[in-house]
Design goal:
alpha/beta, binds pyridoxal-5'-phosphate, 43% helix
Length: 219
């Protein structure tokens, strides 16, 4: 018998396909990041067993505890950090993660560059945009994005492949998603990580390339 997690995952895949079709987008033009914060290793194993490999965690400590073990079992896991990164956690973050989606300041960039060299490992990066300019959220303000991205490209060796945001709760997210698309286009950024359980349909319609889903799978 299928577990709830697997059936939720499959019906989510159907909903993603439907969103893509109604937005006249290609099937397979969305990457699904499964967010496993607070989830047990057993719950995660259900998805690994059916071949899913792209996962996200918010906290470095929690990620280490769960994923060091899982990564020994499955060598092709892609683990994304989607929560804020403190400079004193950079070493652990570089060792357990493959992608960091919360890049938001130059002091962090410098620590990451030197830690990557130390560990002889290159991660991939998304710059986080505080698209609603909310005081409780981290990320660059939208008007800071262009100069930050230009500075990164000119002066640092980090590979920035995308931008990421969490729009304000309880407001129509579409204007914020559209602004992300503008930022990406004018900076020749290909990937946009936006859309969660309650707004992935709008995110796909606006042009997300990756959605990050937790609750609608693990409910
Ligand atoms: C928890 C979280 C998600 C997943 O949100 P759900 O509502 O559980 O789908 C996505 N992105 C970030 C940054 C998160 O913290």
């Amino acid at each position: 018998m299928e577990t709830n997690i697997i059936s939720n995952f499959k019906s989510l895949q159907n909903s993603i396909d439907n969103s893509l079709i109604s937005s006249e987008r290609d099937l397979n033009s969305i990457e699904l990041l499964v967010v496993t914060k607070y989830q047990s290793i057993d719950n995660i194993q259900h998805l690994l067993k059916i071949g899913h490999r792209c996962f996200g965690e918010n906290r470095v400590q929690e990620a280490k505890q769960k994923w060091n073990q899982l990564k020994k079992q499955y060598f092709d896991i892609q683990l994304h950090l989607i929560g804020p990164l403190q400079t004193n956690k950079v070493s652990d973050a570089v060792s357990v993660f493959d992608v960091i989606q919360s890049l938001d300041r130059l002091s962090l960039v410098e620590k990451l560059v030197s830690e990557q060299r130390k560990q002889n490992k290159s991660l991939r990066y998304y710059v986080q945009i505080n698209i609603g300019k909310e005081s409780q959220k981290t990320g660059l303000f939208p008007e800071e994005a262009d100069s930050f991205l230009m500075h990164l490209r000119q002066d640092y060796t980090l590979s920035v492949e995308g931008i990421m945001c969490i729009p304000p709760a309880n407001l129509d997210p579409s204007p914020y998603f559209n602004e992300m698309v503008n930022i990406a286009q004018r900076n020749s950024i290909q990937k946009i990580s936006m859309g969660m359980s309650n707004d992935f349909d709008q995110a796909i319609a606006c042009g997300a390339t990756m959605i990050r889903i937790g609750r609608s799978i693990f409910r």
